Amino acid sequence: MGVLSTQTRKRIVAALALALMLGAAMLPLRGAHAQDTELGPVFLLSLGGKLYDNAWTILDINPPGGRNPALEDAVSVASRDTWRCVTCHGWDYSGTTLGGTEFPGLATLMDADPEEIKQTLLDPSHPFPADQLPELAIELVSLFVTTGQYERSVFLDDAGEALGNPEFGRDVFEGACISCHQLDGRTFLYGEPGDRPSLGWITRNRPEQALHKIINGVPAAEMLSLRFMAEEQIADLMAYLQTLDPAEQ
Ligand code: HEC
Ligand code: HEC
Cβ neighbours of residue 179 under 8 Å, at least 6 residues apart? Predict the structure, then answer.
């Protein structure tokens, strides 16, 4: 989020040129033509965010069979999910502790050089098989790490309560969300294993996950990306969503 440097803009244009060449490999870009070159940071960083969430789903390819050896002991994580960036690095990019192992946060890499991230990902010692993804996917997820992460403290307090004004957030909800998720926010929602199908429950209990998905969209689902909105508006929306469905603790 925030203003993009000239260097980042150049990276985005380069990623886009590659995207148009690879077209068919990236489902959301299928059918892109040269005249679509106005595709910019909102689309590409959101796509990077969705790749961070689940690259395999968005590319419609299978992750390696079995468990990621780095998460062998993290029994609560399904095998398929051991191959997602978010599982190790977290929904707010602050890292995770799973199966007794601490995985590093990425928040300090905002403004780093995307090329460095790409090199980390391609290094065989990093526990993610980047060589099995198209180069464009690696470019976009690297760009996301350096330019697309949201800053948690802008949206949430330490307890995970949204910092916005729910009255303003209600307008966004009524204008943009009701048509799919319905007035009670309980339709068209599955979430992650263990989640309850309720926007109120998810935004209270998994606020970082909800924020990442609201800002970037959801891999292979008809969910909006609100990256274009002002951060305060997204904080307002989160505050309203946290008031929904209060009976669901
Ligand atoms: C199974 C867990 C796991 C998965 C999945 C994973 N990583 Fe990592 N990541 C690590 C570990 C462990 C390190 C630190 C050691 C290393 O660099 O190999 C790390 C390091 C990094 C670093 C360098 C951090 C620093 O401070 O320099 C970046 C950037 C990174 N990962 C990004 C990603 C991205 C993007 C993805 C998805 C494409 C991903 N990782 C998937 C475990 C994981
Ligand atoms: C065109 C239909 C559509 C619209 C409009 C829409 N969504 Fe979604 N949304 C979806 C679908 C489909 C999913 C994926 C379901 C899933 O994986 O849980 C989803 C998932 C989500 C999730 C992720 C839940 C989770 O943690 O996995 C959140 C949060 C969310 N939507 C909030 C919103 C908000 C807030 C708005 C309004 C700004 C909105 N959605 C508008 C269709 C829509």
Answer: none
The span from the CA of 238 to the CA of 165, in Å, is 9
> How far apart are alpha carbons 114 and 132 in whole angstroms?
19
How far, in Å, CA of 41 to CA of 43, rounded?
5
CA of 144 relative to ligand 2 center, distance in Å: 20
Cα of 129 vs its chain's centroid, Å: 19
Give the whole-angstrom CA distance, residue 236 versus residue 241.
9
Q: For tokens 């263990």, what's the residue? A: 194
Pocket lining: 220 vs ligand 2, CB cutoff 6 Å: no
Report pLDDT digits (tens) over 63-85: 999 999 999 999 999 999 999 99
- In the structure encoding, which two tokens stand for residue 54, read together? 């689940």
Which residue minimizes the CA distance to atom 41 of ligand 2?
Answer: 177
- Radius of gyration of the chain, Cα coordinates, nearest whole angstrom: 18
